Amino acid sequence: MSYFNRLLLQCRSGFEKEAAAEITDQCAAEGIYGYCTLNIGDGYLLFNIQQVDDAERAIQALDFHNLIFVRQWMVCGDLLSLEQGDRISQIQGSLDQFPVCSDLWAEYADTTDGRELATFSRKFSSALSQKLRQNKKLEKRTKRDSLRMFLFVLSGTEMYLGYAPLNNSAPWPQGIPRLKFPKSAPSRSTLKLEEAWHWFIPKQEWDRRLPFSGKAVDLGAAPGGWTWQLVQRSMFVTAVDNGPMNDDLMESGQVKHVQEDAYRYQPPEPVQLMVCDVVDKPVKTASMAVDWVKNGWCNEAIFNLKLPMKQRYQEVITCLNLIAEQFMQAGLAYELSAKHLYHDREEITCHLRLL
Ligand SMILES: C[S@@+](CC[C@H](N)C(=O)[O-])C[C@H]1O[C@@H](n2cnc3c(N)ncnc32)[C@H](O)[C@@H]1O
Questions:
Q1: What structural domains and CATH numbers belong to the chain?
Q2: Does the active-site annotation cover 306?
Q3: Helices (H), the chain
Q4: pLDDT for res 142
């Protein structure tokens, strides 16, 4: 019987039910069935799988990039409850079950309690890595078929040990990109757009898809955090908002401020990128983004869908279905991704473009 009988999934604290609904749906589509155990606010949940080997099948069959509410994942076995003292030796028995992995990341929930475990996790995983290298459980492999071992720490004596494919899991520990807030940016939202670029657009394509002197439209732009990012890439930006834009940003000479309704605005000529951070009904924003991409007003669009208080997962599915239907009716091939980014709160970010 396989040791690995569950998936451990991390998410933003408070979004455990959304992550649970999502993993249940996505696994069911692959014929993989299980049930979730979670506590709201924990920042992680478990998807317990009945069928032997199905946890390992799930982490291979599902595309991590397609999961919206899941920040990080791994297959794992039962909770390790260790005695104080030499805890590394107590883990030894579980390690026999593990495939050879290329490295080890120690993670913990992104909650107040979880973050207090940062120092312990780092020290413990450093000692464990040494042991794993001695046991030949950690060895460098080619990136394509490499696995990463994870230690998910709940306390000094309770933890899960698991693994996930390197190329099918989050590229950042805990799924959190460490972005530095730029002092001259007019709002903290600026990091949402930067993170969206990291997540949705491969870095080697930035110069082509976010080009020097390219044109962009920022809908709901004020005070200008997203516009600031576009200006940093030397793009020319039309900032649409009735509210005031940051003075320094306007002085860059790269921003034109248009005081109009974002949902009525149409660009006089096609632009490279449309971004939208307006707080309104998600279905309304999704329809507007479809119009922009379908009509060729922009090559690609990045937009936020503000989530309602209740039925958040259902609302997301409604919006994604609406977008799919519109493109199907138009007979156009498109690419759509959505993610609950680290810098997103009660919203998700979407990326849409024609293929
Ligand atoms: C969350 S803020 C945008 C923050 C901005 N992305 C930044 O980084 O600074 C939302 C903005 O949308 C604007 N807004 C709301 N409804 C709008 C509409 N229908 N048309 C244009 N702007 C709108 C608001 O005035 C507000 O400035």
A1: 6-175 (3.30.70.2810), 190-354 (3.40.50.150)
A2: yes
A3: 16-29, 54-61, 87-95, 112-115, 118-134, 190-200, 206-209, 225-232, 247-251, 282-294, 312-330
A4: 65
